[in-house]
Amino acid sequence: MDPLTQGLALSLTGLAVTFASLGLFILIISLLQRFFGAETTSTVQPDRESGEGRGGAFGREDEEIAAAIAVALEYWRSQQSARSDLGDVLVAGRGPWWYSDNLTVPPPIRRGRHASADE
């Protein structure tokens, strides 16, 4: 069997195993959903005359208040995320690590009988 045919056979085998295992996972999940399915919730259709809907008695005013609170919270979060100390660090310049004294290589430590010859 030449390498090209062997490579194609190996690729097709890998794809078949992958899709078979995914199909098995889908089957297991669907069986688990049948045995331990979530409870069905009944949705309440909004009554146009009374303004009630979605299981509660929220009026138009309450929805507007909730929307205003959501907008205020999002604005506050955007202001908090915009505050960072990155600008302060950039303005401060390079730290002491960048000075030329730190870039020098210390002399090697010699031990043994060659140590007395250098001194």
List keywords for this structure.
4 helices, 119 residues
Between the first and last Cα atoms, what is the distance in angstroms? 71 Å
Unreliable spans are: none
SS field, number of helical segments? 4
Which bin fits the share of residues in helices? Answer: 55-70%
| Helix-strand topology string | HHHH
**Which term fits the overall shape?**
flat
Oligomer: single chain
The Cα radius of gyration reads: 35 Å
Q: What do the pLDDT scores average to? A: 77
Given the helix and strand composition, which structural class is it? mainly alpha
Largest sheet: none
Q: How much strand?
A: under 5%
* Strand segment tally: 0
Description:
By secondary structure, the protein is an all-alpha fold. The protein has a domain at 8-35. 56% of the residues lie in helices and 0% in strands. The chain has helices at residues 3-35, 60-82, 86-92, 115-118. The longest helix is centred in the N-terminal third of the chain and has 33 residues, at 3-35. It is flat.
Quick recap of the structure?
The protein is mainly alpha-helical and 119 residues long. Helix content is 56%, strand content 0%.
Question: What's the helix and strand layout?
Answer:
Layout: H1 3-35, H2 60-82, H3 86-92, H4 115-118
